From TrEMBL:
This is Glutamate dehydrogenase. The keyword Nucleotide-binding applies. NAD(+) binds at T192, N229. Substrate binds at K72, K96, S364. Keywords: NAD, Nucleotide-binding, Oxidoreductase. Belongs to the Glu/Leu/Phe/Val dehydrogenases family. Pfam families: ELFV_dehydrog (PF00208), ELFV_dehydrog_N (PF02812). It comes from the Bacteria. The active site is at K108. One of its GO terms (biological process) is L-glutamate catabolic process. The record marks D148 as: Important for catalysis. It comes from Defluviitoga tunisiensis. SUPFAM superfamilies: Aminoacid dehydrogenase-like, N-terminal domain (SSF53223), NAD(P)-binding Rossmann-fold domains (SSF51735). Residues 185-428 form the Glutamate/phenylalanine/leucine/valine/L-tryptophan dehydrogenase C-terminal domain.
């Protein structure tokens, strides 16, 4: 039987890299070094199930690049996790850390499992055994995991405890995304949404300076797709800290539209009601809001659109009808490559995902710093440091964009690749 030909996610990721590499004239020898993952670990490990049987699961940890510092990236539990996917995600983490200029390389991990089919204690046994298995390549200054799809503060607590038990002392720096009670950072939960808002505000300032946006904040309208951790925290910081009008929000159940804009108090109330994955539309059935579909939200006549739900939300089919002049990508990969091209040809200004949503990894870095020093910051310190990191990353990419006269996504790649390439050249090839 002929084997089905699959599109490799890793090969696709490398294509984006190659476009930037050719524009910046990257040395082909360096290209080879920067593309290939440094380490790929596959582990098959047994877990005792509640019914007395034993199941063997497969997990991965890939360290893509460790030139700028320890490898950093989440661990996901999902039935579709493959080595190819983990490699691609680790590759992107290298460029995300480099673009926001934190001293980390890129890594990612995963276990092929459907976690909803595990009991709480099976989940704990799987998490502890998996972490123990991959511990051979981890360390507080080597590789620092974090939450990703279907892993959370509880799983991070088990990881931290498992590692600490084998070392004989508490090691806070081994994972980030921990609950605040055991060394997590204040401000981590809101960090990705807050960071997207920082990029959104700076993009508006930039477009105004260039004469491409002639509106006051009060006149600017915004729509946000997705009301999970990322979308809701973006909605909150936007309505709390700017005068722009957020007129539409949505989740998987559909969207809400409010012509005069949502207030911060309304967003807070909606966040409270949709806690624990409750659906937006099912929780809200009062006057004052108009219901719209997710497709309608994307096509609204707004100035700014921020897709914060899932990948491939904007495709070749719906991109032609998008009216927003500025798109700030909150989710990972919300635009297909074809949609990206169409929107760029319509002169839409796009702030790319790995810059816009890097607030999460940035505050993870702050959590790691706090854990390594056993010294914990106030919320205001975290917010101030995040603002400084994100604005300087934003303008570093803008400068690169203007230098090469390219789009912001390619510029972000060039800036990130340049940082890792320069470090690689300075360090040289050992021996
Ligand atoms: N959480 C982080 O710190 C973080 C950091 C970087 C990137 N991201 C990316 O941001 C995106 C969102 O992450 P999150 O943590 O907010 O996830 P989440 O699970 O908390 O929320 C996802 C939201 O998207 C909505 N949604 C799902 N399918 C939808 C659909 N078909 N149409 C409209 N809405 C839909 C859900 O209802 C929910 O409101 C993902 O792409 C994630 O990889 C998250």
């Amino acid at each position: 039987m002929q084997e089905e030909k699959r599109v490799s996610m890793f090969d696709n990721a490398v294509k984006q890299f190659d476009r930037a590499a050719s524009i910046m004239g990257l040395d082909p020898n360096l290209r080879e070094v920067l593309v290939k993952p440094k380490r790929e670990l596959i582990v098959n490990f047994p877990v005792r199930m509640d019914d007395g049987t034993t199941k063997v699961f497969t997990g991965y940890r890939v360290q893509h690049n460790m030139t700028l510092g320890p490898a950093k990236g989440g661990i996901r539990y999902h039935q579709n996790v493959t080595l190819d996917e983990v490699k691609a995600l680790a590759f992107w983490m290298t460029w995300k850390s480099a673009v926001v200029n934190i001293p980390y390389g890129g890594a990612k991990g995963g276990v092929t499992v459907e976690p909803s089919q595990l009991s709480f204690s099976e989940l704990e046994r799987l998490s502890r055994r998996f972490f123990y298995e991959i511990q051979v390549i981890l360390g507080e200054e080597i590789d620092i995991p974090a939450p990703d799809v279907n892993t959370d503060g509880q799983v991070m607590s088990w990881y931290m405890d498992t590692y600490s038990m084998s070392k004989g002392h508490t090691s806070l720096g081994i994972v980030t995304g921990k609950p605040v009670e055991i060394g997590g950072s204040v401000g981590r939960t809101e960090a990705t949404g807050r960071g997207i808002n920082i990029c959104l505000q700076e993009a508006v300032n930039y477009l105004r300076d260039k004469g491409k946006l002639n509106k006051k904040d009060e006149e600017i309208t915004v729509a946000i797709q997705g009301f999970g951790n990322v979308g809701s925290n973006l909605a909150l910081t936007l309505t709390e800290e700017s005068k722009m009008r957020l007129i539409a929000i949505s989740d998987v159940s559909g969207g809400l539209y409010k012509e005069h804009g949502f207030t911060a108090a309304e967003i807070r109330a909606l966040m409270e009601r949709t806690k624990n994955r409750k659906k937006l539309l099912l929780e809200v059935n009062e006057e004052g809001y108009k219901e719209i579909s997710n497709e309608e939200l994307l096509m609204l006549n707004v100035d700014i659109l921020s897709p914060c739900a899932m990948e491939n939300a904007i495709t070749i089919d719906n991109s032609k009808d998008i009216q927003a002049k500025l798109i700030v990508e909150g989710a990972n990969g919300p635009l297909t490559p074809e949609a990206d091209e169409i929107l760029l040809s319509k002169n839409v200004f796009i702030v790319p995902d790995f810059l816009a949503n890097s607030g999460g990894v940035t505050v993870s870095y702050f959590e790691w710093l706090q854990g390594m020093q056993w010294d914990f910051w106030e919320l205001e310190d975290v917010r101030k440091a995040l603002h400084k990191k994100m604005t300087s990353a934003f303008y570093d990419v803008i400068k690169t964009m203007e230098k090469y006269e390219i789009d912001m996504r390619t510029a972000a790649y060039i800036k990130a690749i340049d940082r890792v390439a320069t470090a690689t050249k300075l360090r040289g090839i050992y021996p």
